[in-house]
Amino acid sequence: MKRFGISLFAMAAALAAGAPAQAADEVVIGAVYPLTGNGAAVGLDAKAVLEVGQDLLNNAHDPIPMLMGKGGGLAHLGGAKIRIVFADSQNDPQKARAEAERLITQEHAVAIIGSYTSATAATISQVTERYEVPYMSADNSSPSLNQRGLKWFFRTSPHDEMFTAAMFQFFKDIGAKTGHPVKSVALFYEDSIFGSDSSGAQRKLAGTSGINVAADIKYRASSPSLSAEAQRLKAADADVIMPSSYTSDAILILRAMNEIGYKPKAIMAQAAGFQEQGFLTGAGPLAEGTMSRSSFALDAARTRPAIPAVNAIYKAKNGKDLNDNTSREITALMVLADAIDRAGSAKPDDIRKALIATDVPGSQTIMPWAGVKFDETGQNTKGTPVIQQVTNGTYHTVWPFDLAVQETVWGVK
After folding, report:
1. What is the pTM of this model?
2. What are the pLDDT digits (tens) for 122-177?
3. Among 99, 134, 187, 191, which is most buried by a count of CB atoms within 10 Å?
4. Domain that includes residue 219, residue range
5. In this structure, are residues 146 and 163 in contact, taking their beta carbons and an 8 Å threshold?
6. In this structure, are 175 and 85 located in the same domain?
């Protein structure tokens, strides 16, 4: 199959090989992710996809129809190459803080990208603010992160208030379409900044939508058992369970509900662990029918023609398809690289000014977004989420209905 002038498979093989880029100058970007510990699977995927992005930016290849898709280095810096230096946060906010500082002071990073969990983003962004270096929040979703008056914080992805608004709009739309509206929800969330902010947004929108919160369950992250919480969810028997959990807990709660014979009418997840391949593999058939908000739609190639090429390259390197997290990570890198290129400078202040001026149409990304344009808080205002549902072990887009590739399986009566 030929696309973009060369075989996708040939391009994937060449870029996945990671041939070193020869350049007179390098621009160093620090990347902080959990490469060991309980978030290592996600962090290693992030490392792989950012390495793909680095290769796409630096190496010669036929153009891919996306932002910075020409390759060959940063044109406005004489072809300078991006070099990403990775640091292991171990999913520990204080370790993340120390590593961000090391990347800036010892590795001379002109920007930091990261970091999966919002708790680590909170400490990293304090460091980048103090050193006046841009922090590109690729995949952190806590709404509070951009509400702290920071000048060096930028987030390409939607946050949980935006994601939650999409969920409740979906509830309204699917209720009108099927005649079975959502009347009650059960909130289930871990005891972290992510869980607290996510549940807060859900609680607020449930109230304004006239939907009853039948259960409000906070649990200890990485608990050895969620049996008691499963019993409480069963007793509430809400129309929709709304979990905000990372991978191990996402698997555990589905197994716990299955063990007591409880099958929820519907599950609408705040992505995170629910969008990981590890969740789909670990939960197996129990994941069928689960819904999640998502930043990304692998099945949106009709409107985002760069998806097949980028996905093929990533899959050749890491053996997986792009997902909600990895798509956000490579998109954030491309937006950051574009700002550095437009700045024509590796000075952090020049990069910040270029980020403020960013205005990228959605068609120039692999995301189903309207685009990328930052407000005064550093938040992208054009990130438009989708709703996906697991069918035969794979997520498929079901909303907005004009982007849907299949009908929603809807159990609410």
Report:
1. 0.84
2. 999 999 999 999 999 999 989 999 999 999 999 999 998 999 999 999 999 999 99
3. 99
4. 161-294+387-399
5. no
6. no
